[in-house]
User: What shape does this take?
Amino acid sequence: MDISIIIILALVLAIIIALIFLVFYIKNKVERFSSLFLGTKNIFEGFKKQEIEYSETPKSLSGLDSVLLPKINKDFPNINISEIKSIAENAILTYYQSLSDQKLLTIPNITPKLENKIKEAVKSNKAKYSRIKIHRTVLNSYDNKNGLCKITLQTGLEYYKDQTKIQERINTEFIYIYDEKQGNISLNCPNCGAPIKGLGFKACPYCETGIVELFSKTWLLDDLYQK
Assistant: This one.
């Protein structure tokens, strides 16, 4: 046999052996990685297991209730945070039901901006949502500047999108406009009609009539989005 053919065959054999060792080396590394991080040698089973665990674990929330509640109560002594959280959760449930039914269902006290946003989402959605479950809702942020107050809540929930279980985190934003320059929503004295420019007022500064703030008339749901 020609010496050159022998050399070529030897090189081919060496390459095949090297490839076999490389495959086994990579396989061993993959199995070790999968065992360490996914709990099983089969990486595909591991990713499937991770996917299931991810769908079963509620998303963490950025809750600042203990920090924000004193600030909010100082500006709004009569506010009922539990009521606001309940309104947010009901709005989220109605939002996903609207997407699933492909028609806009009534969500009380929302701004035109949010209503239009939901209409567009309903129009473009093709998925079905079911078995929607709220985990909990927390205070996420509070701003009070330039005549506009904003409370942002964060809600953890789960639902099935078609046949896939999903854990989600939704932010809802409520606004309160107490400066007429910021919009056409303001708190007015029920007796003389004078605008109430400050927060936490117990009485009208003009006619001294007692002021009772009604949440449904002073706060509006302005935005709703995944976070």
Residues 3-38 form the longest helix (36 residues). The chain has a mean pLDDT of 81. The longest strand covers residues 129-145. The beta strands are 129-145, 148-161, 164-177, 220-226.
